[in-house]
Write a structure and sequence with these properties.
By secondary structure, the protein is an all-alpha fold. It has 6 helices and no strands.
Length: 115
């Protein structure tokens, strides 16, 4: 559901007006998350700057993904690292942060490497 606060921000974006801190300050956490999802689906980059717990969770997943990927590429193939990486990969796929084809491509690389 689009609330008045969300509508006001979307109208400002449509009119190419600046989104002020006071506009964002009016939003509760659910509205921020909703705006983030709208921005993500519609590729509205202005909405990515609004703080959101969903955004923070996605950033943490990406950071963990890159950290574990780097560790694996450096030769650390411990079972714990591989398990964590696969769990992060599944979460990213489930959250639609990566496509099914990207997910399958990474799994195929793991199979080729005997992980």
């Amino acid at each position: 559901m689009i609330t008045k606060n969300i509508r006001d921000i979307l109208l400002k974006i449509n009119k190419k007006e600046i989104i002020n801190y006071s506009d964002v300050d009016k939003l509760d956490e659910n509205e921020k998350n909703h705006l983030y999802n709208i921005g993500k689906k519609m590729h509205i980059t202005e909405l990515f700057e609004i703080p959101s717990t969903l955004k923070n969770q996605e950033e943490k997943l990406k950071d963990e993904f890159f950290k574990l990927r780097g560790s694996i590429m450096a030769g650390n193939n411990s079972p714990e690292i591989l398990k964590k990486f696969k769990m992060i990969l599944i979460k990213m796929k489930n959250n639609k942060m990566i496509s099914l084809s990207e997910f399958n491509e990474i799994l195929n690389i793991f199979l080729e490497m005997d992980y």
